[in-house]
Amino acid sequence: MAIAALASHAQEQPKDVTARAEAAFRSGDLIVAMRLFRNAAEAGYAPAQARLGDILDAAEENAEAVAWYRKAAEQDEPAGFYGLGHMTAIGEGIARDTVQALALIRRAAEKDYIPAIEALARFSRSGSMGLPRDLAEAEQLERRAKSLREASKGSR
Questions:
Q1: Is 62 part of any domain?
Q2: Would you say residue 57 lies in a domain?
Q3: Who's near 155: CB < 8 A, 6+ residues apart?
Q4: How many CB atoms lie within 10 A of CB 89?
Q5: Predicted TM-score (pTM) of this structure
Q6: Any residues with CB less than 8 A from the CB of 125 and at least 6 apart, and which?
Q7: Do 77 and 37 share a structural domain?
């Protein structure tokens, strides 16, 4: 029986491994979560790569976080673009470059990635990251993020 259970985990899809990793993370089991995220990320699953980047960024493992975000972004993963943009904006694990950071965050926003849209709204509201202060643009972006958030709640 135990061998059959191990075999079924060995054939588990990276998406399912990532879901189990998220559950372990939410329950506070960081050791299991990291192992599962890493397994799915190493299997090439872009959402797991970006999520692993998030955790490594929080742990100040900046160079490794950047590497995982980059791998995710290379697969057109919005969370990868956003994470890499964030790291580039502040110059952690990668040279600071606000022009490149803004381009990456915009790529994520184009894919309806809510944190990226919210970041663009903050930049427009404050006139930061090279954007002019534009309250109308900020409000439009905030409405878009809110609408997407409400739509995602309704689809669960």
A1: yes
A2: yes
A3: none
A4: 21
A5: 0.87
A6: 133, 135, 138
A7: yes
Q: Which residues touch 33 (CB under 8 Å, ≥6 apart)?
A: 21, 22, 24, 25, 55
Per-residue pLDDT of the chain (156 residues; tens, 9 = 90+): 333 333 345 578 999 999 999 999 999 999 999 999 999 999 999 999 999 999 999 999 999 999 999 999 999 999 999 999 999 999 999 999 999 999 999 999 999 999 999 999 999 999 999 999 999 999 999 999 999 999 988 765
Both tokens of 14, joined, read 């990276």
Residue 117 falls within a domain, yes or no?
yes
Query: Residue 76 corresponds to which amino acid?
Result: D
User: How many Cα atoms occupy the beta-carbon half-sphere of 134 within 13 Å?
Assistant: 14
**Count of structural domains within the chain:** 2
Q: How far is CA 24 from CA 18, 32, 129, in A?
A: 10, 6, 36
Evaluate whether 67 touches 80 at the Cβ level (below 8 Å). no
Q: Which range of residues forms the domain containing residue 127? A: 112-151
Same domain, 19 and 54: yes
Measured CA to CA, the distance from residue 85 to residue 72 in angstroms comes to 12
DSSP letter at 92?
S
Nearest CA to 25 out of 56, 63, 66, 3 is that of 56
